[in-house]
Fold 10451_t:CDS:1.
Amino acid sequence: MVPQDSEYNPLIGHNTSEGVAQHGNIPTPTGPTKFNMAFVSFLFASCGALLFAGTVWYITSNAEHTFFIWHPTLMALTLLMATFGILILQTTAKQGERNVGLNWHKLFQTVTFFAIIAGFTIIITYKNNNNKDHSGLCTFSFILLQTTFGSILANFPGVVGGASKAVRMYKYHRFSGYFLLALIYITALGGTQADWTIQHFDHLWVWLTASVLVLVGIAGRTKA
């Protein structure tokens, strides 16, 4: 005698239409849907970051090649690496996945660290030579603090009292990372409205679309 549990029932019966008509519903997958939602969120955030950075690089590749041009080029790299640095650590469940994700996170954030230093040095030099003000100091300082603190937690836990304390402090590093990413995009959006950028690319909707895609993608993966 065959048990009537759903585990033993065929996925598709001999009379599918009759079964659907009787029960009035169609079974839907659970596990795969959760995985797909995480992947779709990843695609949203990735496309947004690539759209933002790619547009900046499109502008700089078609603009006059001067010393200043390296500032937006490096800032776009900073934005892109910071975004993927967060994405790569989201939804990592197994220890092996966490270790791989952490290694990629370190790589992305290392590139972010050096890119922001180089890009900020270039803009400060340019602004000082032309007697202009610059408004990105807050974001620059935050990135340096965030990457330094993260490096200490991952590589030198003894500084904060040992590995167990470093693990407990990680949640603060994660939350501040989300805040920092939002600050990076706000600062970048401000840069898109600078006179130089508007002269070369006056399409605000592109920047807003890219930012919204990143926001939706990051938020989606925190729940996936």
